Amino acid sequence: MSTSTLKKGTTLNVEIAEFIGKIFSFNNSLKLYHWHVTGKASYAQHIALDQAIGDLLDVTDRLVETSYAVKGDLNIVIPETKNPTDIVKHAEDFFAYSESQRALFAEAFTQAIIDDYQEAIQQLLYRLKRLQ
């Protein structure tokens, strides 16, 4: 293996680890918001967030374990998590971010896991916007 190939693979692993850390932070941000929900339609939001958190956690675990199998150990660091003020915008922005990171995963099966992650975000957005 050449040095340039090794460096490219190492850089990719760093980028994958950073993305996964941000996924964990996003998942945790939903839980922070979930704990603070009050007011009109708060029960619907509370339940929608609870369901999304469970779905996203399962998919995140699959993505991490599959990435370890394909890429080897990753140095995942979870960034500081803040409580979002606008949960719909927060979810829409993270959906767009996850789409921008899709190229990190070349295999069809890891792409399918990203699809499942994004589907869970879209289901959350549907529930937050329509089921009040």
3D architecture notes:
This protein has 132 residues and is mainly α. The protein has a single domain (3-130), classed as Ferritin, CATH 1.20.1260. 77% of the residues lie in helices and 0% in strands. The protein starts with a helix and ends with a helix.
Helix and strand layout, with pairings?
Layout: H1 3-36, H2 42-71, H3 87-100, H4 108-130
Overall pLDDT confidence: 91
The shape, in one word, is: elongated
Task: Report how far apart the termini are.
Answer: 56 Å
SSE order, one letter for each helix or strand? HHHH
The amount of helix comes to over 70%
Largest sheet, strands/sense/barrel: none
Oligomer: single chain
What is the number of independent domains? 1
Low-confidence blocks of residues: 1-8
List keywords for this structure.
132 residues; mainly alpha; Ferritin; 4 helices; 0% strand; elongated; disordered N terminus
Précis, in short:
This protein has 132 residues and is mostly helical. Helix content is 77%, strand content 0%.
